[in-house]
Amino acid sequence: MDQSELRRLESRCVQEEAPRCTASCPLHVDVKGFCALMAQRRFDKAWSVLAKTLPLPGVLVRLCDGPCKGACVRKDAGGAVEIDALERACAALAKSVRPPKPLPSRHKSVAVVGGTLTGLCAAWEMARRGFDVTLYCEQAGSCLSAVPESTLPGGVLANEMEALRAMGADMKENVSLTPELLDSLLEEKDAVFIDSDDLPEDVRSFGQPDEITLGTERAGLFASRTGEPSAVFQAATGRRAANSIERFTQGVSMVSGRELEGPYETRLFTSLDKVEPLPPTPSDGVYAEVEARDEAKRCLQCECMECVKTCEYLRHYKYYPKVYARQIYNNESIVMGTRQANTMINSCMLCGLCETVCPEDFSMGDVCLEARRSMVERGKMPPSAHDFALRDMAFANGERCALARHAPGTDASEYVFFPGCQLTASDPDGVETAYGDLRERLGNVGLMLHCCGAPADWSGRVGLFEEAMAELKSVWESLGSPKIIAACPTCIKTLRVGLPDAEIVSHWSVLRALGVPVQATDGGGTLAISDPCAARHDRVLREDVRALLEQANVSLVEPELTGEYTECCGFGGLLSEANPELGRKVAERRAGAREEDFVTYCAMCRDMIARTGKRALHLYDLLYPKGDSPAARPSPGYSARRENRVRLRETLLRGLWQEDAGPNGDPFEAIEVAFSDQAAANMEDRRILKSDVQKVLLHVGRGGQRFVHGETGHFLSAFRPVVVTYWVEFEERDGGYYVHNTWSHRMHIKGERS
Amino acid sequence: MSVIQVPEADAGQWRCATCDEELALRPVELEYLDSLFNVALPACPKCGMVLIPENLALGKMNQVEHLLEDK
Ligand code: SF4
Ligand code: SF4
Ligand code: SF4
Ligand SMILES: [Zn+2]
């Protein structure tokens, strides 16, 4: 990712855009922060938020008619927050604060001519920024004398005038404003601002000021336009004048980048989806403490966070995509030192939910996948992140598991059944039955046992993925390029990309057309459907499955996040490999989305959900039932998954094709071994396979060294087949082994230092 | 290069079954991703077989592996 790509991404995420109140306030008060403090009754703090932004705050909050309210998002859920009333309440409730401390002097002198609110605010803004300000007027703020006491209590204006002086503004009152005065000020000062509402006709010889800069025909002379009735817009004009004069005295562009002065349209999106309508808090005049608090609580604290609300992964890392994009960019730019974002990059499920819910289609999945590819390319991908999954993929594509055949007794295939490596690992019997059903009802259906290559893709290994696809393609072509019937949504998605020439139909749409198989169980009561994230953009697939479930007399309920908005089970993008803890959290969240038992049509979704203890069915459990209570079927562990694939291939080869399954495997497979419950649980957690343990035990049997425990008499031995060292604590029992514990590490023991 | 002592490297009640020897802390060289470490670990004084106890493998050692991977 380069700088410009980062900028493009950052600007896409609108989370940091201003809320609508702030954007539409001519002075951009931080209304959200203000309301948050008011809701906690921290009135003094709330006042300092106002005083930070508003010139003459005591006066202004009492005169502002709240144009911000027209933009308040709460408007459509009971009514806009009474922001102006809250600000007045705050003025009454907060202790008075000292005037802001001006910035160090710029040694630039400016004159403000005219003392209505516009001139006073301009003087305030400039005094604050370190200009030497002199204000010339008849009488400062005299135009406010008509404002009733109930609106602007006596003394408030005087206080702010005092503050203005304390900030260093020199106030020259009782001055008659003449053309001569103007000429001499233009001589003397670095710039002059004229408050046109306080100016006799004969002085106004400079024409209409420019709308954006307030500049006039005379260099260094700025002026307001006349007739602005709204106090807050008058103040905004004062600020615009100050901005112009600042640019003018610095000699920078007078026009560029001024779009955000005054009210503007913000891009911030805030959903009202889960917001209960609530009308404004009633009051008789000015809010008292409790009412003010209640009214402030109606503020929605606008933000987007649509993606963070729906994705556990995005939530886990505590920020939002704009921040993540920067972290990923920084991670990539690091030459030396520690990369903090590796695990973050590898924890995205690449499921596409964020993009679907984002008002700006920000795809965190694309960003993370790109980052993974670049890490792999630069040799920066941590070897432990995806190693286990990639070895598993290699195993699934190895000679013990992979298979491609025409249906027994035929030498051509119109279709080929592609169940996918996870379904074969999770439910080999279901696959066998399904294949039988397809042959019986469709005729010439070949079989391909193979992995679709998704793990290579998810791990960012472009080369490996292409290799896997090339191999798949040649196997498929060797069968005469038949139509592919794929059962796994991820396979369907991956194959459609990787084998663009192939015609790919889902098993579910085939079954929908054929009708549910005869052996299907009738109904399953009410089940909650969980769409796999790979089906997010496949409406046809989702509909086929629902139609099938209806044919099977299942009554379905949907979780809140479903269909196009479904959430991943925690396996997608190899999350559960790169960050097992978060993977479990995600699975638990999904499992908790409905009370009812789940039904899904992805073997990994089924197993991830089942592993949390939630009852979950794969569609095969209904269509090709075996045994009782399939919803309680435990998720097979990693070792069993491998064995299931091997056994399925052997069974099919021997049973259907009357062929020998080939060599009987490695010698370590002959080792008889049993495991304590603790050992079995540790193996799952630590991604240690039965075959890894067998390799250690074979090594022991061949005279490998071992330790013995003084108390338990258990033995302990280690072996390093490739890059991981496995330790096994065991006993010898009945001619075999009983394993109590096992652990592993990647660090290599080079031996004792000589 | 100095030898790092790790408190997790306790031999517990393990002894070398092959040589029938008590284990003793010895300086051992470990390697991961082109980084070398010298650590004092329990090993058999006779055959030199090194013990990596479970808490060390899953604790300190795992942390160091991750640190090196994130580099
Ligand atoms: S009440 Fe006025 S000053 Fe306050 S936020 Fe709204 S527009 Fe801005
Ligand atoms: S896990 Fe899915 S929703 Fe979450 S960031 Fe990744 S692609 Fe987006
Ligand atoms: S949905 Fe997420 S990525 Fe999209 S704008 Fe909102 S916070 Fe940013
Ligand atoms: Zn020994």
TrEMBL record, chain B:
It comes from the Bacteria. Residues 13-71 form the DUF7479 domain. InterPro entries: DUF7479, DVU_1557-like. GO terms for molecular function: DNA binding. Keywords: DNA-binding. Coiled coil: none annotated. NCBIfam families: DVU_1557_fam. This is DNA-binding protein. It comes from Pseudodesulfovibrio portus.
